[in-house]
Amino acid sequence: MTIYQNLIAGEWVGGEASDNISPSDTNDIVGAFSQGTAKDANQAIAAAKAAFPAWSRSGIIERHSILRKAADEIIARKDELGKLLAREEGKTLPEAIAETVRAAQIFDFFAGEALRLTGEIVPSVRPGISVELTREPLGVIGIITPWNFPIAIPAWKIAPALCYGNTVVFKPAELVPGCAWAIVDILHRAGLPNGVLNLVMGSGSVVGQAMLDNPDLTGITFTGSTGTGKRVAIASIEHNRKFQLEMGGKNPMVVLDDADLDLAVEAAANSGFFSTGQRCTAASRLIVTEGIHDKFVAALTERLKRLNVDNALNRETDIGPVVDEKQLQQDLDYISLGQQEGAKLAFGGERIERQTPGFYLQPTLFTEATNQMRISREEIFGPVVNVIRVKDYAEALSVANDTPFGLSAGIATTSLKYATHFKRNSEAGMVMVNLPTAGVDFHVAFGGRKASSFGPREQGKYAAEFFTVVKTAYTQP
Predict the structure, then answer these.
(1) Per-residue pLDDT band at 2 (split at 50, 70, 90)
(2) 246 is known as an active-site residue
(3) List of domains in the chain
(4) What is the C-alpha separation between 307 and 301, in angstroms, rounded?
(5) Distances in Å between the alpha carbon of 354 and those of 31, 95, 186, 277, 384?
(6) Which of 246, 258, 299, 305 would bridge with 223, disulfide CB 3.0–4.6 Å?
């Protein structure tokens, strides 16, 4: 079997390898991928540091061309890369292909941004002096990404980093090295100079920790758990390093009495259960007013009965497997906890068997939940959703905001009054009206509030806030 190696200073570097196993079929080995060491991480950072002076002053046409080549190859290979993603992460094939297309769109967008770099020239308060404000690259960027979006999240971090002239050390999640390797290989062949982009696969405790400990990283952008995010922050403060964190969510979706029932049910099913519920923007708290509650629960239960849980590569599959055994056990533990807390298990909750051995879990719906239960406070990260009954809109808004997180929130209503009020008063970074809470465009800001995010927003033109620094220069002729 081919061993897929790390990329350091423009050279593919081997080492001890680990099998990448499909959660849809544990007999399917996606590939063997090298496991980096702390030494590899430090060498990658040194290579990125050495490459930074030249790349940071490279021409915008060079950056544009490389990013555009990457975008073109990703879109041309969307079916192949989508199948790889589905095999290693467990998303259904249509979802995986759609994510691959999104990655191509991100690289295409930032290829354009490379040509749209701007600054300002303004007069000083002192006559005869001009003031020039420009953005310069931050430096050597550490990128640490999660397993749930194995090609889109790396794309929306790597593309702006390179666009603005930074160099990169990239550590993907251990569970999904295949997509990471593919995207780095595409960029490497697109013409990136040696050392500009480095890939070090391996464990967070080894590779990730070495990155955090190295003072030559100028910035680090992290997406993952809240606990790990806090460790990233502490380590970064010690080195006076700029950091950006995207972490957990316990996202609410409010359903009011006046909602279109069919629309609300479909938005809730998509929000809570598609991608196996393994999205940081998934709505795991459905906050439903009492006038529509019983009809909504009945209709959503019927919708869940029609969802087909199976191998991610099967065309008829609606929901793929949980990503691995550890995550599946965590989901099952929370399901047991919910029952102990007094919530009613209205549907699902069982591990199921399919033709291929994998980590399959029924979509799980709790009713009679309260917002004080642990299943309503803590991120489960699986196809497990709670329904919380409330009296009216005022109580729904209060419950929706009563969470330590603040990533995404949604409301289903036909009332312009309530929709407008919710958009203004929801304590979330992203708000959806009559739409799933998951699913955002590639060219606009992504990020949350409270314990969900820290630092500048990701994606779109807002990415410049993290990946660049502003320089102010004064001139007197």
Answers:
(1) confident
(2) yes
(3) 3-247+452-475 (3.40.605.10), 251-433 (3.40.309.10)
(4) 10
(5) 23, 20, 35, 19, 20
(6) 246
Identify any residues that bridge with 430 across adjacent strands, giving them in sequence order: 408
Residue with tokens 């994510």: 99
Instruction: Answer whether 0.85 is exceeded by the pTM.
Output: yes
Catalytic residue among 99, 246, 379, 458: 246
Percent of the chain with pLDDT over 70: 100
Please answer whether residues 418 and 400 qualify as being in contact, where contact means their C-beta atoms are separated by less than 8 angstroms.
no
In sequence order, what are the beta bridge partners of 471?
134
Q: Which residue type, as a one-letter code, is found at position 232?
A: V
Q: How many residues does the chain have?
A: 477
pLDDT tens per residue, range 96-143: 999 999 999 999 999 999 999 999 999 999 999 999 999 999 999 999
User: What is the Cα–Cα distance from 197 to 178, expressed in whole angstroms?
Assistant: 17
232: Cβ contacts below 8 Å, ≥ 6 apart:
144, 212, 220, 222, 243, 245
**Options 88, 99, 113, 280, the catalytic residue:** 280
Distance CA 365, CA 317 (A): 19
Strands 197-199 and 167-171: parallel
pLDDT, average across residues 87-94: 98
Pairing relationship of beta strands 251-255 and 283-289 according to DSSP bridges: parallel
